[in-house]
Amino acid sequence: MPIRLAEIWIYPVKSLGGIRLKTSSVEEKGLQYDRRWMIVDKNGVFLTQRANPKMATLDVMLHDNGLILSNRFEPGDQVSVPFIPVTESPVQVKIWNDTFWARKVSDEADQWLSRQLGKNVGIVTMSVHTHREMNHADAAPGRTVSFADDFPYLMISQASLDDLNSRLAEPVAMRRFRPNFIVSGTDPFAEDSWKQIKIGNVGFEVKKPCERCVVVNIDQHSGKKGTEPLKTLATYRKQNRKVLFGQNVISIGNGVLREGDEVVVL
What we know:
Elements: E1 4-10, E2 19-21, E3 23-27, E4 30-31, E5 37-41, E6 58-63, E7 66-71, E8 78-82, E9 90-95, E10 98-104, H1 107-117, E11 121-125, E12 153-157, H2 158-165, E13 181-184, E14 196-199, E15 202-211, H3 230-236, E16 238-239, E17 242-252, E18 255-258, E19 263-265
Parallel strand pairs: 12-13
Antiparallel strand pairs: 1-2, 1-13, 3-4, 3-18, 5-11, 6-7, 7-8, 9-10, 10-11, 12-17, 14-15, 14-19, 15-17, 16-17
């Protein structure tokens, strides 16, 4: 059985809900629209589900002119986020140790998100002047990334999740791990040994395992936090005090991916 790209996912706003796509464009920073928006506090510091699990319950949809953010449990409570910002305000933002310039998007969206999260927050986007380089230990100097934590792409095999779920009292969904690529037709954790792959006509380098944090313990539907699956993963996927699940990936060139594309291990 050939290895296939079973699912393609993007997460346009960092730490909010994901969108499954049938096709997507590969760019240096990540898939088109993936993590190009981010929620920040009044000091420009990024917010994630780690401290704000309710972010998991805010859904994102693509439409012709931008995004629509909505509250999953309050139908009709939504706001538009335009592709072209309606404000000219630049803002300095911080993700981990990276500080760089982004751009405010919409006062209306800021107010909606502040109400949803119960604190003063704003949404920013990457502008043409936003330049965020990857860690030079992980990629060549000048290589850029979106608002993702470290890498532009994350890949996990369905067999790896199936293996994990066979060890859990209650199975978890793949979206807990927020991958871009879900591949089928492999043995569990086969992706751990891959170095270079080709998906359709686009090449990728498999760089390093993904270190998992407490976000995987948050139910991505309800926003409720538990102790699994991190507790179980730590019993058999721990190396040097880090729990590993999935592989961080960078692209070699651009192109278009489609669900069902063959994955060739080079």
